[in-house]
């Protein structure tokens, strides 16, 4: 991210220490969750690795501060509660990050399919991931499959297995 994309709190040392006052902590965790979502949206990243994030996203070397393990857990728990993250592994060392919830992504994809005349046709996941100038362009395939499963559950799409890849038929 560019320096102007970081919130002011990122240069404020107390931002990296879990605040004891519950109201202040709530605002702090809210600011952290917004930062995590913005960071992943700007960088078009769908996976957060905790160890890697400790070195960059959760750490500001210019002020020599790193968010504590407890702080990271609070941020990730908040993101999971709001359906903006999902643990990939049982150890919770990696997470899918959704700057739109899966339901929101499903609505975006459904609107795209309708607006572009793809209703009733089959698209490969490759075509969707590489669609030009769409918010979902570059989406991680596992996340796209989760979004398509939401659409499938609403009877708005059907996931199709094509040899060693997937496709989707929009209704």
From TrEMBL:
SUPFAM superfamilies hit by this protein: Winged helix' DNA-binding domain (SSF46785)
Claim: Transport is one of the keywords in the record: yes
GO biological process: protein transport to vacuole involved in ubiquitin-dependent protein catabolic process via the multivesicular body sorting pathway
Compartments where found: Cytoplasm
UniProt main location, coarse: cytoplasm
Protein name per its UniProtKB record: Vacuolar protein-sorting-associated protein 25
Top-level taxon of the source organism: Eukaryota
